[in-house]
Predict the structure.
Amino acid sequence: MCSVKLPANPAVCPLSRVAPGSLVRIKELQATPELCRRLREMGLREEQQIRIVLQDRNVVCRVCNVRLGLSAKLADKIMVEPLQPRKTGEK
């Protein structure tokens, strides 16, 4: 595994369980070192914010204004935490 142990946080869950339209932050990649490297190359790295576009058998997310499709199996290896949407006028 290429991940570090996170403190117990009930808000952290696999990307595959997040509803469409949600904004989340990646907290941990729970995969082999090679797969973690490839995910990071695609922009899916720790602390990166992503938006879930579609959740079906596969997960489509927006990362840095690019849409990426991931299998549910791969999305299970990406641990995320939900983010609150910004209020109008916040920076």
About this structure: Residues 24 and 82 are 4 Å apart (CA to CA).
